[in-house]
Amino acid sequence: MAPRRGDSRADSRADLAATVGRPPAASAGTVVGRSLPRREGPAKLTGAARYTDDLIVPGAWFGFTLRSTEAHARLLGLELDPAFDWSRVVVVTAAEIPGENVVHLMADDQPALVADVIRHVAEPVALVAAADPATARAARDAIRLRTEPLPAILDPLASERAFARYEIGRGDVEAGLAAADLVVEGTYRVGYQEQLYLEPQAMIAVPGEDRGVTVHGSLQCPYYVHAALARALGLAGEQVVVIQEETGGGFGGKEEYPSMLAIHASLLALRAGRPVRIVYDRHEDVAATTKRHPAVVTHRTGVTRDGRLVAQDVDVVMDAGAYATLSPVVLSRGAIHAAGPYACPNVRIRARTMATNTPPNGAFRGFGAPQTEFAAETQVNRVAEALGVSPLELRRRWAYRPGDVTPTGQVLRESVGAGVVLERVAEAADYEPVRARTAEARMARATRPAGARTDRLDGRTAHGIGLALAWHGAGFTGAGERFLASVAGVERSADGQVLVYTDSTEIGQGARTVLSQLVAEALGVPAEAVEVAPGDTSVVPNSGPTVASRTTMVVGGLLIRAAERLRADVEARTGAPFATSYRTDAAQAGRVRFDEQFEGYPGIVWDDATHRGDAYPAYSWAAAVAEVDVDLDTGEVRVGSVVAADEIGRVVNPVLAAGQVEGGTLQAVGYATIEELQARDGRYLNDRLATYLVPTAVDAPRIEAILLEEPFAGAPHRAKGLGELPMDVGAPAVIDAIHDATGAWIAELPATPERVLAALEAREGRR
Amino acid sequence: MTLATAARLRFTVNGRPAEVAGPGGRRLLDLLRLELGLTGTKEGCGEGECGACSVLLDGELVASCLVPVAQVQGRAVLTVEGLAREGRLDPLQVAFLETGASQCGFCTPAMLLAGRAFLASGAEPTEDAIREAIAGTLCRCTGYTRIVEGIRLAATDPPGAAIPAPALAPLAEAGGSPAALPSGAPEVVSPGSLADALAVLAAEHPRPIAGGTDLMVGLASRAATAAWPLLDLGDLDELRGIRLEPGRAAQFGALVLGALTTYAELRRSALVAEHLPVLAEMAASVGAVQVQNRGTLGGNIVTASPAGDSLPLLLATDAEILVESLRGRRSVPAAAFWPAYRQTALASDELVLAVRVPLPVGRHVRFRKVGTRQAQAIAKASVALAWREEGGTWRDVRVALGSLAPTPVRALATEAVLEGQRPTAALADRAAAAVAAEISPIDDVRSTAVYRRSVTARVLRRLILDAVPGRKAG
């Protein structure tokens, strides 16, 4: 199968664009649906793009962070080594915080600096800055923490303190299970995952003349940082300016943590009366910043003999770490997706996220769903095995169709792509024929004559194929988008330029390009005619954070409506099409700007208290088929290929969209196979790139992205979310493929060689 | 020759001459970013793991965080800022733009230079070859698919589109460096001859540095402890080259490999390919392109890590390490060279000159490294197996292991099980059981004792099974 794909993609430049499964609607214009090159591409390709650490800030000092080394302790005091020359540095502790000692987000429980109790290893306790890094480091090392240890809770299952609990359900699960012919039980565990954006966290704070501060940083959400700074520094909103610089990847890792860096850099800058830069090295970045939540997910699934799904009972426990950060909403998303995209009359999902004395976990592409969907999909694949049915066939029967009802009671009215992604991926990956061949090979290996011990694992490797299906709600969960009430605007400036105003950030995903395409299409002008205003909170409005696969769907929708109003305004004045008249109109009418505020999607109702209703305005859908070779001597898994079909509503830019699918797929493959962060006593053991391994180009599978369109009528451009979706589906497909190859289920991610070899040896022992 | 501060360094950057003073032990990465204002070269880890700081040094891809500036003397550096010509993107840059090979852009400069080195090599642009060429540069956004496509496109059908390149700040915009220079970088002395080097070594005991792929790791964050002076071996031609020592009468021939032989040179060498191809196989398993271009056999020997990739092979082949000091020259058997964890048999005034690997007639050598990843992997376990075939039975059997003890070790009891035997499947099982019983691996951050024991036994069993006559490789 690989050669076929290779041939089809090798030569023609047109083929470099991903396959779009359905041609764009007939009404499509000339800009949306085209693979226009990335707007900031030339700057990134020549070294001209400036990331935070590239900025020249004359006179800036260097800030460093003194961190705790204990998981739980009372902080009794700080001892400054009298032998050190403290006149050359500034030191900031919790006592010197002018505003509230809190990193504002949801629960406001996390201090910017420890005041009295250390609650996890690597928690910031004091800050130092000096004119050169060596002096600042030496100063940090000359401060000793006096502490008194407290008992630490490191196991979420042993914790009694929950940051959030939810119960979601419909029907009667116990009755459903009692009536089932077969109940399959399973417990699944997933570990930490590090975002590993290539650019480490970086922030530069510049004190202003009005006692205010301007920060330049690598970040996803300018207004999160803005609110957190105002709160901790005790400043009015207008005294704080947040500027996003070119950002070298985020994946959620720059959603909430940059607020911490911005507060730290600002505290030092205000104290020192000069700019201060804080740039983490990789070791500090991995040791201190948020990770994907580890989780334990338990399933009981009831089915009838003829393969109908009658009951799903799911229990989810996530390890939040020491502070709430975003854990309640990570858990909510995880719980809502926990039963998988399958119609079932009796469902119960119980979920909790527990406090432990470990570094707080937070946002990471998928936001709780990769954990629960890995469990759900592996469970479905195990049910298929128990029923003796093909995993594809079982999903054909169970997967959501229009009119089906989700566990929160949402009726799926439109844009339900589960069926189409399944069929397309199965066809493109040759799923059933390959599966028949791997089954034959597995049988042949298993039926070797008894007594031939050395021949039992004669094959060097075993080949397997696996399938998974996923759904992912676009935008904030439930009433979140209404609360955000995002604003975005489009301007025709006095000098005849078109400018897009949004704080949605370009972090590599292509937001700048996609948003300018959407506005250009609405105005009837070429995309090059549209500029995106810089991500500077003194310039752009709060369009909400750049997270939750919401930028194209939600912010893009606002911008299209704003552009339509601008177009109507100009055309009413000039009586000519916008494209030919907006420049001349500028001379008479001057600057014209229209802002749109989010008010809700029609017919979407949600009750936060009961977790019932329409959890998301729309869902995107993905199916993936992975093929693996398992080395039977070493337990190493090579993922050779992944075919991914993603249904995302209207595709705005096929090349950028395929890039999201491919990149998310590789992160999922890493999650499934080698990305393991080990912890002991609340401390990460392998917090370096030599020990936390991510896939290189020779580890990465060949990835074929197939983009499919089931337009979503609720958005003016018919687009849904994409960024997180691929992260949900890759890992269970790989685990299914390992099972197909070896007969062993690996119920804990990642499937490291250690775990796979242990499973192989357990099977050898049984024979 | 003394350890006085080196003279000013002269070299070229993107075709233009540059001249700097200061400690020779600071990182090329800092020189480019902080002194020359070439911030297109990025720092992602400072440990040679991510590859984001890669540049071309005389056309070879290197991680600039691992290169001491003393070793740039007289050479040519190419950074991403030097790719566009006459205000236009070059075809590789255009190909990246067309295929969508750049997302967040942080790895892009290094990927372009990896691509440039690949294109210049003239290698067939197959998918596998391109992937290997970029394996030392991590990307977290793209899944690599479009980067591979971009390089292939530039190789097979270079785009001709004229796309203007954004204006760059002039070289050495100096003044406000983006960050202060790390202080305390070591001084470097670069002797031009072995005699000079040995004299300096005996007098002042500087630390010898070859490719820097171990010594420079994390230098920036441990400046204070790294301040001891360095002895740059790079100009010592006496330590270079691979030659064949022909056999004479009762004596076997041997391969003599200079201490400065890089992994890349091992992979390219016709002599190695003919006489000891397993050495090239080992070299291909080390790091990725950037480390293979810089890392040396001598450096691997002296670093003395139990995970050093070449060491089990040197044990299994009865290699001798040739060392020299002002006091004279001597030869140390590999089996006696690593007495304890990260220690060597070298006296403080001795340098490793070369490695002599005897080439007995009828000897076979096999090697397998287990490292989880296909590139940039440090061994969790490695197994080297050698034997001499004599009328169907195995003689002079050697089983040497890496990452399984505080030093690279030979498994003597396992060797005894195999010695004088005919290879059979049953013998493979017995040897596997023997090696599992003989080793005492540990749990650490890279793996577990249980896994190491098990995988070592299984890999050894496989290496033996593959040598059973008439047995088809599975």
Summarize the structure.
Chain A has 767 residues and is of the alpha+beta class. Mean pLDDT of chain A is 94; it is low at 1-19, 21-28 and 450-457.
Can you tell me about this structure?
The complex is a heterodimer of chains A (767) and B (474). Chain A is of the alpha+beta class. Helix content of chain A is 31%, strand content 23%. In chain A, the strands form 7 sheets. In chain A, strands 4-6-2-13-10-11-12 form a 7-stranded mixed β-sheet, with helices on both faces. In chain A, strands 8-16-15-14-9-29 form a 6-stranded mixed β-sheet, sandwiched between helices. In chain A, helix 5 (222-233) packs across helix 6 and helix 14 (511-523) packs parallel to helix 15. Residues 1-19, 21-28 and 450-457 of chain A have low confidence and may be disordered. Chain B folds into 3 domains: 9-81 and 170-232, Ubiquitin-like (UB roll) (Roll); 85-156, Orthogonal Bundle (DNA polymerase, domain 1); 240-466, Uridine Diphospho-n-acetylenolpyruvylglucosamine Reductase, domain 3. The longest helix of chain B is centred in the C-terminal third of the chain and has 17 residues, at 449-465. In chain B, 29% of the residues lie in helices and 19% in strands. In chain B, the strands form 4 sheets. Chain B has a 5-stranded mixed β-sheet with strand order 2-1-5-3-4. Chain B has a 5-stranded antiparallel β-sheet with strand order 9-10-13-11-12. A 4-stranded antiparallel β-sheet of chain B has the order 14-15-16-17. Chain B is globular, with a radius of gyration of 24 Å. In chain B, a hairpin with a 7-residue loop joins strand 9 and strand 10. At the A-B interface, helix 1, helix 2, helix 3, helix 17 and strand 28 of A face helix 2, helix 3, helix 4, helix 5 and helix 14 of B.
